[in-house]
Amino acid sequence: MELYEWPAHRIHRGLVTGEVSAREVALATLDRIGQVESSVGAYLHLRPREDVLADADAVDAALRRGESLAAFGGVPVAIKDNMCCRLLPTTCASRILEGFHPPYDATAVTRLQGQRAVLLGNTNMDEFAMGSSTEHSAGGVTRNPWDLGRVPGGSSGGSAAAVAAGEAVVALGSDTGGSVRQPAAFCGVVGLKPTYGRVSRFGLVAFASSLDQIGPFGRDVRDVALLLGAVAGHDPADATSRPAEVPDFEAALVPDCRGLRLGVPREFLAAGVSPEVRAAIAAAVDLLVELGAEVQECSLPTVPYALDAYYVIAPAEASSNLARFEGVRFGRRAQGTSDYVEMFRRSRGEGFGPEVRRRIMLGTYALSAGYYDQYYGKAQQVRTLICREFEEALSGYAALVTPTAPSVAFGFAEKMDDPLQMYASDVCTVPINLAGLPAVSLPCGFSNGLPIGLQFIGRAFDEETILRLAYAYEQAADLRHRRPPIVAPRG
Ligand code: GLN
């Protein structure tokens, strides 16, 4: 295994024993970025090479002084461009935040820096995290490392692609309706959406506040467990973060599923899920049974309405959250306007891309007087039913097993003209955000060389069980050493 392919836990061991230096690790990743970034396009902003190396040198110096090393000390990491970080511009891949340098750091970023992680840069995404392909970015596209003619998924496509391509060891993304898990599935890496309230949202630019969570990406389950542990925990700066104790997630990783009852909700395998995804999930279920799990089919009858409810609730919250971008306090301001109203209107019109404008209009409509009960009120009722059904199912099962996405990665421009088709790629992930539950995606097979994602959904604040399942599956299926080819773009 090349040094740039080492997982974080291997790097940690190498640093502690003196087998490698943090500088060597940083150089290996920087060289890898130099080789493949022009093909993949995972990053929006990279820190200067000398700053990255200076951070790595500081870790080596601390080690020489005999200081102890945290799990991510000296590990090259990337963050999504919607997490505030004083070392970088934070733009949410939007023109409206062009050149914005946040005056403070997101709590998740502070925690990683507190461990002396080596921050490389921030990654491409759909504008304001609205999308499923990273095509809605003012910063250009990110290509899927497994097939450069296809999307990496979204909205955290840059983070997923960076980890898959070896351009970062681990990365953070955000997941409002699937934006960590779906790109993880498309790029053949592991991605986890924590329970709502597990990780602080302080400094994460809000899309839909009742759904947003920051989540980890890694090339294996152990790295994802460790990264979750590094960023999780109560934060007084985020009123929705919960004072739940943070367990040792790594300790939950045991390689069997004995004594675990799992449910396979049939609604997640309904029409629209491709035959190759179905086949891969069926094979994964067989392997889980071999590993000692007891698996049964179950039903969550309201889940088929989740996508509709999500696409009312998420735009409604977004229309309110995005009202603050008016060209005065943050980012870009339209020039040559004659009064305030024109300035607001033109700044927003020029600054937001088409998908963000669509969401603001959808959300404003859903919240407007006379329609509120019909749309927003109704969607909230559906959300309540979905929460109850998950709670009921998870009282009988330790976790639920589903596909992460209904298909493998699709081609560029394939769904850009048809928003409903684009939204449908979230069909297996949004129900979990509505219910606030944790879920993890990991590779469970390939179709024509493209990865397929398996999703485990757990009880609230029980990330340990889904991590254990993912770990047991990963060890037995042994797909984690398969790496994307990254062949130079055609023509
Ligand atoms: N693709 C979904 C959307 O467009 C989810 C995005 C996300 O999780 N941030 O809303």
In short:
With 491 residues, this protein is an alpha/beta fold.
Descriptive account of the structure:
The chain has a domain of 290 residues: Amidase signature (AS) domain (Amidase signature (AS) enzymes), CATH 3.90.1300. Helix 5 runs parallel beside helix 6. Helix content is 38%, strand content 13%. 56% of the residues are buried. With 491 residues, the protein is an alpha/beta fold. Bound molecules: glutamine. Glutamine (GLN) binds next to strand 4.
SSE blueprint and pairings:
Elements (H helix, E strand, L loop, with lengths): L7 H10 L4 H19 L2 E4 L2 H16 L11 E5 L26 H8 L3 E6 L33 H9 L4 E6 L5 H7 L2 E4 L19 E6 L2 H11 L29 E5 L9 H16 L3 E5 L7 H16 L18 H12 L2 H14 L5 H24 L2 E5 L15 H6 L5 H6 L3 E9 L2 E9 L4 H15 L14
Parallel strand pairs: 2-3, 2-4, 7-8, 7-9
Antiparallel strand pairs: 1-3, 4-6, 5-6, 5-10, 9-11, 10-11
Helix pairs in contact: 2-3, 5-6, 9-11, 9-12
Bound molecules: glutamine.
The site of glutamine (GLN) has 14 residues, from strand 4.
Structural class: alpha/beta
CATH topology of the domain at 3-254 and 440-477: Amidase signature (AS) enzymes
Residue-averaged pLDDT? 97
Level-2 CATH architecture of the domain at 3-254 and 440-477:
Alpha-Beta Complex
What are the bound molecules? Answer: glutamine
* Shape annotation: globular
> Helical segment tally?
15
Reading off the top of the CATH hierarchy, the class of the domain at 3-254 and 440-477 is best stated as Alpha Beta
Distance, first to last CA: 31 Å
Portion of residues in helices? 25-40%
CATH superfamily of the domain at 3-254 and 440-477: Amidase signature (AS) domain
Radius of gyration: 21 Å
Q: Mind describing the biggest β-sheet? A: 11 strands, mixed
